[in-house]
Target: Peptide chain release factor 3
Amino acid sequence: MSENLSPEIQQEIVRRRTFAIISHPDAGKTTLTEKLLLYGGAIQRAGMVTQKANRHQTVSDWMDMEQRRGISISSTALQFDYNDVCYNLLDTPGHQDFSEDTYRTLLAVDSAIMLLDAAKGVEPQTIKLFKVCRERGIPIFTIINKMDRPSLNPFELLEEVEKVLGILAIPMTWPIGEPGDFKGVYERDTRQVHMYQRTSGGQWKAPVATSGLEDPNMASIVDEHDRNLLDEELEMVDELIHPFEKDLFLEGEMTPVFFACAINNFGLDNFLDRFTELAPHPADLRTVKGEKPAASADFSGFIYKIQANMNKAHRDRVAFMRVATGKFEKNMTVKHLRSGKKVKLSFPYRLFGQKREIIEEAYPGDIVGLVNPGLFRAGDLLTVGKDFQIPSFPRFPPEIFCRIRLKDMTHNKSFRKGLDQLGEEGVVQVLQDPRSHSRLPVLAAVGELQLEVFKERMLEEYRCEVTFDRLDYGASRWIKGTIEPDGGYTFTLLYDEAERPVALFRNEWHMNQVVGNHEDLEFLPHPPDF
Ligand code: GDP
Model:
């Protein structure tokens, strides 16, 4: 940490942890989030955060559509304190189709918890999200959840993590009992045994009986069969598995693994202790390419996400900013680097699901919701001091395309507004076709659900009923090089929101053929100025 930081900022940095949970839908992310908040005292009773379909009020799942379907699309940031440590948990949307947004959120965290279902191991969405974390070089913790249910053998699970993800998986705890007959965990470094006890509905923190393996009372807790199995397995673990090394973990090469049962709060308190001890604090913010920007005493932050109409009572757009360096204060005037404009930040919010409250100050690692007057875009930098380099935001080449139609043309004005705002938010990408007489754009998405969300939000928030005509393209690339307007290209040429040329192809095969035929142009999976 830089020495010119004030003791106040240093202290706040040291006590902060900003992280996200990455997982495949249904692994238990909502449950884990809820339990962590329960530990932090941020909620009184588990079940208040994300009651899914047909349960009642929710905090982090706020859109009607999400509630009806019981999926979590929109991200918010949850802040809670536990043992004087301040945690910022950035909620990443869980649905596999909603990927671009999720990836952006991962640029704003300092570490991630990878949550796996003990019966399923590494699943497709986890792989995608893992790759983003890996590219940034952020440390990753692993929790193997649902240990109370029939599960894969722990050695198999560890091997799968290593083989599929290419990261060394080191068990910090070890499950006791046969798979499916879970008795508790053995903590390898303290040599303590934590016995699993069900609690009614898992609403409260579970009391955990702990004692050393050598304790004479152990015989009454762990029967002979389980004890022999444990001894045998621990011997194999010591022999076959690399010891945990903090440096390798911080470089993203090694992941500490914990076995848990989130629904019953089991394994979470010792996890949280180890997490707090090992997870880097926000002075170690890394860019998307893994570099560390210099620590600075001056405020700087970056927008990682824009969200319109979050709350029906406040129909506005919120830009989510992560404080990167220095102290943020309400009413601060900052420089918006992309436009060069000075902006006064008068309405900074802390958001907790639907609720928002004005905040006076924030420190590195914190997330501030800024009411967005249309100026902010994901990736924008705000600073009071020197110009500042941070993550280049990843873009993903869309694979689904359609032309959009408005049913009732008298709503054209709000239709255009909706297109602008939802496009800016990144719900879908809006591509312009200069040859189209109707000036109707092409919508491009990475996943199917993006289109559905777009359609629903157009109706709900802009009162516009839209239909889509699917277009027969399956791949796209941004183009670098000189484009001839009448170049007779065999791909379709459109322009993105910043007027950068984008080529659309029928499929991957077509794309590879075109790319091979055009040595004068470069075809990139992200914008050329990325
Ligand atoms: P998400 O889709 O990752 O947010 O998953 P949820 O938290 O909604 O969990 C999916 C399902 O798994 C729900 O029915 C949970 O009650 C259940 N679940 C979560 N954790 C556990 C666990 O530790 N054990 C068992 N048996 N079920 C769990």
Notes: The pocket of guanosine-5'-diphosphate is lined by residues 23, 25-31, 52, 94, 145-146, 148-149, 261-263 (CB under 6 Å). The chain has a mean pLDDT of 82. Residues 197 and 207 are 8 Å apart (CA to CA). The chain is about 25% helix and 25% strand.
